[in-house]
Specification:
With about 425 residues, the protein is α+β, with helices and mostly antiparallel strands. It is built from 13 helices and 18 strands. It has 2 domains: about 80 residues; about 300 residues, BirA Bifunctional Protein, domain 2 (2-Layer Sandwich). A hairpin with a 4-residue loop joins β6 and β7. The longest helix has about 35 residues. It binds one RNA strand of 88 nucleotides through α3 and α4.
Amino acid sequence: MIDLKRLRDEPDFRAGIERKRVAPGLIDDVLAADDARRRLLTEVEELRARQNAASKEIGKAAPDERPAKIAAAGALKDELTAREQVLAEADATVRDLALRVPNPADPGVPSGGEDDGVVVREVGTLPAGPPARDHAEFAEALGFIETVKAVEMSGSRFASLMREGVLLELALVNWVVSRLVAEGFTPVVPPVLVREQAMEEAGFFPTDRSQVYEVDDGELFLVGTSEIPLSALHRGEILSADALPARYAGVSSCFRREAGTYGKDTTGIFRVHQFDKVEMFVYADPDHSDDEHERILALEESIVGGLGLPYRVVNIAAGDLGAAAARKYDLEVWLPSEGRYRELTSCSNYRDFSARRLGTRVRGEGGNRLVHTLNGTACAVGRTLVFLWEHCQDGDTFVVPDVLRPFCGFDHVTR
RNA sequence: GGAGGGAUGCCGGAGCGGACGAACGGGACGGUCUUGAAAACCGUUGGGGCGCGAGUCCCCGUGGGUUCGAAUCCCACUCCCUCCGCCA
């Protein structure tokens, strides 16, 4: 959620919001509603102060004076109750509006939408042409995935990973996690079922509710990313300054309904309802979150680059950032069968947007401040396999990238 | 799944419906003393909102309720503990 005080006081803050797609008038509506709310608040608090004082006197008063004083206090109370109701409505109005206001885009973020991201750099050499077989065909042929029975039992966008495909998945997870541990990340296998409250506090509800699977009559929800449980790790806490940065590496299955993607990426496992992912999540000191962001980006690059995949880094434009991110980089990898770059990983700086609802702060000299939170994909396993299967094959043979060989125990697969 | 007990500040632990944002102990921090340290002694020590400020309001697991007044009474929920049953 947004900082209303900054929205009120800092023109740049407002400008950053307006660079995202916001309903016209929303910002003015929030400000007006907040103004009304604060006026009511002052009024109610004055009434409360009088009511408190009146009640206190009753306690001290002589027994014969009490009935009159209780009557007077009762009258005050009725007035207070009425005003409190108006205040509660004003509160709700402000909250509803405020929740719709996105985090402002950073000054360094390009303006525009989906097509206006700026390519920061391109790394690696692109293959001359398309692969002998696309990832779906190749992986089916070599027995790495099974889709027919998976679709029969679970529906479209489900697949089984099989044989060496499984060993490759485990190798990827192992390699990536061990790298992150070496970088100071604490590995976590979190719950993938969470309560509605966790979804709300992580900022996924109500916006992305339609993308989420419900379980147990709506008691629990399957997470679409371990960002959700990782963000809950310090909810409501005031961390000591030396606890930051706190870096976590979540390993989990992720579940997404992929509503509204009918017809997109229908073959293979590029886009599925269930996949495994290693996710980075960092709680950072507000003064150093930009450094952390660059650090996460560098890690993502070294992982994708380490696998030998040609990629480019895109500085995502304001309109494409989503509500929470102030800045976001995507790593797009060349997909030979489509002859274009497709998103593999990304990393975002949420600043204090998410921490405000989570209530995660740092203890500091001049008072406690909200932490900044950042997240980034270390390895979206299934999709990484897609790229590897297209880049490291000749039609019948899959060649394992060097870095994974110690983790999977073979260097190629032929069928 | 059934039966009972509990949730208070960094920790432990009190708290007849009015004097409680909360005793007391421990810890931590600052100071005195000391060559240094320990001990002893003195002091400080929760969070949040609104307001230029004086100040004021809110928070004793969470959400409601009763009352002039709730940490204290009532209801619901969550979590923890004990016992029984079941179980990878």
